[in-house]
Predict the structure.
Amino acid sequence: MESITKCLNEWNATLEALGQGKQSILIRKYSTNVDKFLLYPTTSYAMKDDFFKSFKKEYQSFAKENALPKKEGSKSEVKYYATVEKVVEKPSTRIGSLNKYHIWTNEHVKSYLGSGKGYVWILRVYELEEPLMLDRTRGLLYANVSEEVPLKGKPVLSDSMFSDILNEM
């Protein structure tokens, strides 16, 4: 069975949206050559006063409920992993067409991307069989967790639902 230590650092509310099937993409300023990773929750954003304005109105209460991950000392709860199934490059002016695939506001996405292009990572997200409390190394985007994690879990979206998303991209 395959196992990994590589993790992607991301806002906990976004990870929960991915893990609960409310979101299926990440929008980045760059592509990736990492094809699978654990989803590691971060919290530094939750200290900003206007953090919840980054989310669409209908997801603001969801974001508040999921702003902070479960923690034990320096360890955070890791519940999901993802595989990058496709990366699509889009001009920032065309990102609005992807609204149904994420929980952020257009203003947040535009502010993040600026006038440049964006890379849309289409992720197949899996829920681990058991959540794990893990430490991680330092790293802005990617890091490594403190132990090997077996990639055993079930997909968050059905094959047909995920296939539909891939075909629309």
The mean pLDDT is 90.
